[in-house]
Design a protein that fits this description.
The structure is a homodimer. Chain A has five helices and five strands. In chain A, strands 4-3-5 form a three-stranded mixed beta sheet. The first copy, chain A, is an alpha+beta fold and about 130 residues long. Chain A has two domains: about 70 residues, Winged helix-like DNA-binding domain superfamily/Winged helix DNA-binding domain (Arc Repressor Mutant, subunit A, Orthogonal Bundle); about 55 residues, Ferric-uptake regulator, C-terminal dimerisarion domain (Dna Ligase, domain 1, 2-Layer Sandwich). In chain A, α1 packs across α2, α1 crosses α3 and α2 crosses α3. Chain A is flat. β5 of chain A pairs antiparallel with β5 of chain B, so a sheet runs across the interface. Chain A binds a DNA duplex (30 and 30 nucleotides) through α1 and α3.
DNA sequence: CTAAAATTAGGAATCATTACTATAATTAGA
DNA sequence: TCTAATTATAGTAATGATTCCTAATTTTAG
């Protein structure tokens, strides 16, 4: 079985994700890591994002823009997706337990995670609507 | 402003979506509509799915498989995504209102919709795990 | 220091989705 | 019903996100 070696590029990816409050896409992460490691390749970013997601170090978020977003905060929390600027942000609320959300439903599968997201227009984009 | 004309292909797409309990992808829809309209093109399927989504006739679901899934049931309900077979199913529970889920959080944007999904292993795939 | 194993850069390939265009279907009105 | 304008379609090319491949580099254990 393959073990996991250290890599500077992977460390930089995690550090970058932990340093930002938004939930960037692979391409945004790539552009930012390039400032420190100009020769990093996009394939490396994707491979490490997949690895870190599999390890549970980061979360992959599927939104409505057909691009994966990544989040270094792994404790359960809500997300808000703006349909104008396509950015994802956190909502500062402690979510309900999956069992509470499921209610009385009988489900014979295995539930491993549960994720609520809100969609609409973010404060910034609402301001732009008004001024136009 | 462009008006919308009737089209048999679009009607077939809606009928197919309403006839199935799973939430198929564009490609699956395409393969099924082809049984009735062998000459339908994939572009037509995508264009109509986008139109129907914009009209609110159907819902587009973003899951973890980088493919959009479509759902003809537009009343709020929960979804379950199986990480093994990548299928999406409905959970028969009446969801909480967005306001309840948001709790006491102050959010100055506009929330238009809210969507909870559960992830894990579906009953069928759990059976396969056991027998292997 | 060295050799084996893991990771990388770079680029090609894949897959879902969108864009383009000439032809066909739909619709409103005579 | 016939016709002309409009809208939708089929087929194909293009796009964009993600994955795959391989030789070269980095990491690691001894």
């Amino acid at each position: 079985m393959a073990t996991t070696n250290y890599s500077r590029q992977r460390e930089a990816i995690v550090n970058y994700l932990r340093s930002t409050t938004c939930h960037p896409t692979a391409d945004t992460i790539y552009e930012n890591i390039k400032k420190t490691y100009p020769k990093i390749s996009l394939g490396t970013v994707y491979r490490n994002l997949n690895l870190l997601t599999a390890q549970g170090v980061i979360l992959r978020l599927s939104c409505d823009d057909n691009k994966d977003h990544y989040d270094a905060t792994t404790e359960p929390h809500h997300h808000f997706f703006c349909r104008c600027c396509k950015e994802v942000s956190d909502l500062p609320v402690k979510p309900f337990e999956p069992a509470t959300l499921l209610g009385e439903a009988s489900f014979s599968g295995r539930i491993e995670s549960c994720f609520t997201y809100f969609q609409g227009v973010c404060p910034d984009c609402m301001n732009e609507e008004e001024t136009v």
